[in-house]
Amino acid sequence: MPTQDLLPLAVAVPLLGAVLLVVAGRRLPRVAIDGLVTALAAADVADLALLWARTGDGRSVAWLGGWRPVHGEGVGIVMVGDRIGIGLALLTAVLILAVVGYSWRYFEQPPTEHPGTFPALILVFEAGMCGFALTGDLFNAFVFFELMGAVAYALTGFRIEDPRPLQGALTFGIVNSLAAYASLLGIGLLYARTGELGFAQIGQHLAHHRVDALLVAAFVLVLTGPLVKAAVAPFHFWLPDAHAVAPTPVCMLLSGVMVELGIYGIARIYWTVFSGPHGIPMACFRDTFVAFGALTAVVGAVMCWQQRHLKRMLAFSTVGHVGLFLIGVALVTPEGVAGTALYVAGHAGVKAALFAVTGVLLDRHGSVDEYGLYGRGRELRLGGVLFTVGGLALAGLPPFGTGLGKAVLEHAALSRFPWLLVVFVGVSALTAGAVLRAAARVFAGAGPRPRERYAGPETTGGGEEPEIRDPSRAVPPPMLAVPAVLLLGALAVGVLPGIGRQLALAARLFTDRAGYVAALYGPAPAPSGASPATGWTAEGVSLGLLSTLLALVVAALAVWGPAVPSGAVHRARETLSATGRRVVLPLRRLHSGHIGDYVSWLAVGLAVLLVVTAAQV
Amino acid sequence: MSRRLRTCLFLAAAVVLAAFYAAACTGLPHFAGLVHPYGTRAVAAAFRQRTANVISSINFDQRAFDTLGEESILFAAVLGAIVLLRRARDEREAAPAPGRVMPSTRLFGTVMLPITLLTGFYIVAHGQLSPGGGFQGGVILATGLHLAYIAADYRALERIRPLASLDVADALAAGAFAALGFVGIAKGAAYLQNVLPLGTFGQLSSGGLVPVINAAVGVEVGSGIVVLIAHFIDQAVEIESPSTQDGQRPDDASGADGGNR
Description:
The complex is a heterodimer. By secondary structure, chain A is mostly helical. Chain A has 22 helices and 2 strands. Chain A is globular and about 75 Å long. The termini of chain A are far apart. Chain B is globular and about 55 Å long. Classes of the chains: A mainly alpha, B mainly alpha. Chain B: Keywords: Cell membrane, Membrane, Signal, Transmembrane, Transmembrane helix.
């Protein structure tokens, strides 16, 4: 089979698989359904792995329906796979396989009269995400963006017996749909001006127009969808509300890859559509989104530290890390892209593993509350080890992939924005510190029993419904094997030098706009310039160790601090928490769960972006 | 945030958005221009493919991959409705009471139902020739069926609505679109390439793959929408929820951090 046919196949295989599951699911026993969906997920992994291998350090281009452009003009849709896009699709497919394995036979999948619906939705979700990662067409990207949205809303609200998931899904659906309308308005503006819908083709035509209000408005509007999907502050409010209530396997996908696809969308659209002559200047893109990224990272980390609901904690940690990813792609250098790609790959494994272990806790104890679970995870020794290792990896402990990605990004940011080092180290330390704090309390019963301190309303995470059929028997083996394998995968991203090298080459290709355009019409020249270094350096290792150490220190202070007899430590702690409360309480109040608030913030974020961008072009 | 603050914040931002969007619209091409770069190319391509309805040529041939995504969204929406509107553990089903219908409504419905279905079939079948197609015709077919609900009652609708088969038809038609793409690959061309004989311009059989995909979409939309509406009506008519008696509002339990409800 020719290489370019593998591109649409990555979308068509899961779609056909979903149909097969819906039609045949009613007549098959649960074991057969799970076997079938595992085989289908594996088939898509194989397709994308083959595509990755065959594409190599180049691009695979597929004109759907054979509508190649004639004399530079065409009517069709193009899919363009380079190793960043294919890699992200491959990461999606691998995570889908992990999720399917995690839910094997045990995870309760209503409705009972329609068995096969849950895995079918998972496969359609995969089709949407792979399509988004591989397409080279703006409108087509929008369609797949909507497809993954439509599935994600349904999957988030999956446990209908509880009003919380429905509220979370509703918030998710409304905020994301409004963002999608904004994107569509932007696409309309670009289409009206250029008569093109392909990324590269729009970019080429924009070069013939001057920079005006239409360009600025289209730039901000088109990016609204990906920005909301990526949960960049102040568009992030929906994420914790949705991720905290979705079923565990779905959380693994939402936090592991879907949010990161938003970051990918921002970077891809900027580079191919807006980075050319008469586009949005690189300095404008860089300064604006580095600032937004830093804001997101800090908000996510601070809120993460405040949570006792474990899933909300992990969700806010995702917000924090997404901020770092946004900074990475906003540096507009190959090094930034390579570092982000490594970081995303490592983070996907780590975060999915952490959610997976939380799912085990949920099933054992019907709770994801750090306080309520105090000491109750003791008998779950392997789970405790995995959760702790996940926390350390989240901090950027070498040689995990998260550590390598963070190190490369820190190096990339150092020359222009040295202050970002504090953001990178602080955000990884604080988010990982929260996870380690919870690990120590839940799995080891360390420190005194946590007291109820926070006066305002908060989400505790108690009284949740278990998700598997019979929580009273032993933990199903896949529920601990899958997180172990995922953590090993995150380790492999940091240890195997081949991955970093290939992503470095891929990043150079990703940032080569002229090459992307040329690849549509024939073989593109190889990109000029050196590919960035993505190996371990002494500086990277020491910063990784520093953030891990800081994470351990803050976790230890939180767990054992109250037990220290009164004195200097105690007083310091009190003053710190008093000042913290003054800053943090208003921030917590902003996360009100009120959809109207979130929509207002969406509008405010857009207005700020418009003004800031217009001021800089 | 208080209601007042939220509204002020939104309105302030909305003014900025409106100003920018209005300014952006001044950069658009003028109304009623004679050429549009894409429109001109798409019409020429549709004629080359002997598809009289240019819209169908764009939907099912030139940009068929978009349409594959769109009909997958409908497919996903149907699956989502099956999942979200299922009968929860604490809900029970009750038989709906027969409704009283005016004789004139009943007569009108009985006459219009077959006519509407026929119109739907016509619109689907002629999608490659005249305005309409699978999406539009499918919606008409689904709407036509629901005349039974208006003209009689829910039990009459249930009798003429084979929900289980429509469920399967929806999935199979969605799959047929994705599968038809492989015809191109099998013939050594691209995925979703229109490799079937194109026929004579203006004939029912013209357009190659276009009428086939169009028919698949017609079946998918028609059955998908019936299933979708069925789940919503079931929820309203047949399923009784206990929580309505408890007086518990869903937003009491929303996941949130701060808040001042």
